[in-house]
């Protein structure tokens, strides 16, 4: 099979698969983004609090 035939076949396959993709609506995308941002902020806050507590505990331990 020639290289151009392979490229043409690949392009046709990509086009066929792209037609099957279901993109989220603007509202779904906004809601998902909000969930991700809130989750990241909560996890970052939790990790920060645990870090401060452990730092204080180690500081008391080695005083």
TL;DR?
By secondary structure, this protein is an all-alpha fold.
Largest sheet: none
The termini sit apart by 75 Å
What Rg is obtained from the alpha carbons, in whole angstroms? 25 Å
Strand and helix order: HH
Q: Please count the helical segments.
A: 2
Report the mean per-residue pLDDT as an integer.
95
Q: Count the strands? A: 0
Helix content: over 70%
Low-confidence stretches: none
Backbone shape:
elongated
Provide structural commentary.
The chain is mainly α. It is elongated. The chain has helices spanning 3-19, 26-61. The mean pLDDT is 95.
Blueprint of the fold:
Blueprint: H1 3-19, H2 26-61
Name the features.
mainly alpha; 84% helix; elongated; 63 residues
């Amino acid at each position: 099979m020639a290289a151009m035939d392979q490229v043409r076949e690949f392009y046709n396959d990509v086009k066929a698969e792209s037609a099957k993709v279901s993109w989220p609506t603007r509202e779904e995308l906004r809601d998902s983004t909000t969930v991700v941002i809130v989750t990241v902020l909560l996890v970052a806050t939790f990790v920060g609090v645990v870090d401060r507590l452990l730092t204080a505990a180690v500081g008391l331990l080695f005083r």
